[in-house]
Amino acid sequence: ISEWILPPDSPFPLQYFPVRVQGRRAPSPLTPAEMGGDGPAIGVDLGTTYSCVAVWRPSHNRVEVVPNDQGNLTTPSCVAFTDAWRLIGDAALNQAARNPVNSVFDAKRLIGRRFNDASVQGNIKLWPFKVIPGPADRPMMAVQYGGEEKHFTAEEISSMILVKMKETAEAYLGMSVKNVVITVPVYFNDSQRQATIDAGAIAGLNVLRIINEPSAAAIAYGLDKMPGSGEAKTVLIFDLGGGTMDVSIISVQNGVFTVKATSGDTHLGGQDLNNRMVEHFVQDFLKKHKSDIRGSPRALMRLRTACERAKRMLSSTVEAKFEIDKLHDSIDYYGRITRARFEELNMDLFRKCIEHVEKCLSDAKMDKSQIHDVVLVGGSTRIPKVQQLLQDFFDGKTLCKSINPDEAVAYGAAVLSGECDRKGQDFLLLDVTPLSLGVEIYDSRVQPHIPGFMNVLVPRNTTIPVKREGRYTTEFDNQKSVRIKVYEGEGAWTKDNKLLGEFMLEGLVPAPRGVPKIIETMEVEANGILKVTAVDM
Ligand code: ADP
Ligand code: MG
C-alpha cells in the first residue's frame, strides 16, 4: 500500500509533514488492572480537519496522547476511496490531490444536519466531492468505490475515522479498546450530538460520554479541580483549528461547567492561512518565471502542501524554505518566506480572531479582567503571532499552553474517560442546560386567541442529567390528540423561543375538556441529549 500511496512521481516526500513527526512515544507497559474489564477507555477529539486520540493510564496516573502509524499525534479527518482501497487519515490526505472527487473531508460540517440547511448548501459549493440528498433529507457523500458509486452519511464517514483512532490506540496499547469519550463543539445541537453517538456505535464503540470541546480543554488543565474551586472560576477557551475558530467563555464551579457565551467563525482557520501563502507564491512564481500556475490544479496542490509545511516550520523558526521539482512548465521552484512576511499576509485574519474574543466577552457581559484563565486550543494557536496578540489583549496574562494545543481536547476527554471508568457513568455533574426547556401551552379559557406560551419544565442552568414532569390536560371536549411542541429559550411566549421538535399524542379517550390527565416528561441525559415523552394517564 505504501508503494501505491507514494508512486515514483509523488509530489510528496516520504515524510509528508516532517514537523508533525514527533517520534513514536513508547507506551508505558499495561498493568494487569488496566487489562481487566473492558480495557482502557480512550478520549477522541473528532475534529473537522484533524482528529486526536489519548488514553488515560490509571497505573501511571497520566494521559498519553497516542501517535498513529505515521508517528503523528493528530490524524487528518479524511477518508478516500479508490477502485481497490479505502484509505483513512494521512494515507487518504496524501493522495487527495490526485483523487479529489473521492477524497472526503469535513464530514463534521454535515453531521446531524439536513441537506437543505443553508450551511450545508454553502459548504457543498466549496467541496470537490459530491453531496446528494438522501432519505429523510439527510446529506450523503457520493464517491466511486470498488468500481461503483457508493453513498455514505456523515455518521458513516465519521465512524471510519473513529475506527482509525480506535485502531491507533489498540496498536499502541496492544489490546482492544471499547469505551470512548468523544468531544463535540459547544454549538452542536441535539441531533448533531446524537449523530456523533451513532458514529461511535457504527464504529463498534461504547460512547461513555459526549463532552463539549472547550470543557475538555479546561479539564486537561485541571481547571475544574483547582484549589479553592468552591468559588466560580471563569475560563476563556480560544480554539483556532484547521477550518474553524471558536471562542467560549465557561464558568467552572465544583466541577460543573456552564457555558456563558460563545463566538467564532465557521470558516476561519489554518487553511485560510495556507491560502494566503499559496497566493503569495503564485504571485512570486508569476514574477520570477512569467508563468501562471493557477491553471494547474496539481501544481497548486503541490504548492499548498509545501505551504502547510512551511507554515508549521514558521511556528518554530523565523524563515522557511522549500523546493519543488518541476512545479510548472518544467520549472523547478524555490520558495522562501520569513515569519514576518507570513504574519503580514495574515494579519487581518489574526485580528479577526481577537475581535471574536471581544465579541464573546461582550456577549457574556464581562470585562477581560474577569477572566481567570485563557486556554489555547487548536493547531493554529501554535503560531507565535496568534499567541502574542492574545496575550497582549489580556494585558500580558500567561496563557495556558503547556499541553500541545491540538492535543488538549483529546487529553481532557481521556481524563474524563478515566473518571467514567473509575466511577461509573453518572458520576459527575459536569454540564448544565444553557437555556430553559419547555413545552407550548394554550389556555383559550383565560384569554382567547393568545399565542402559545412557554411552560418551562427544565429551567436554564439546571445541572444534567435531569428528569422533570409536567401535568397537562385538554383544551376542548372530546379532544382526540394533543400536539406537543418543545422549545428552548427564555421568552415567555413560544414565538420568541426556538422550536426543537414536536410530536402528536394520539388516541385520547373522549372526555370533557380539562378531564384527561396528560403527563409529559422531559429528560436531559448526561450527554446533553433531550428526550420528551407524553402519556394519557
Ligand atoms: P481541527 O480544526 O480539526 O480541530 P486542529 O486543532 O488539529 O484541527 O488544527 C489543525 C490546523 O492546525 C491545521 O490547519 C494545521 O495547519 C495547523 N497547525 C498544526 N500545527 C501547526 C504549527 N506548528 N504551526 C501552525 N499551524 C499548525
Ligand atoms: Mg478542534
UniProtKB/TrEMBL annotation:
The lineage of its organism: Eukaryota, Viridiplantae, Streptophyta, Embryophyta, Tracheophyta. It comes from Aegilops tauschii subsp. strangulata. It holds the Pfam family HSP70. PROSITE patterns: HSP70_1, HSP70_2, HSP70_3. The keyword ATP-binding applies. Belongs to the heat shock protein 70 family. GO terms for biological process: response to stress. The keyword Plastid does not apply. This is Uncharacterized protein. GO terms for molecular function: ATP binding; ATP-dependent protein folding chaperone. Keywords: ATP-binding, Nucleotide-binding, Stress response.
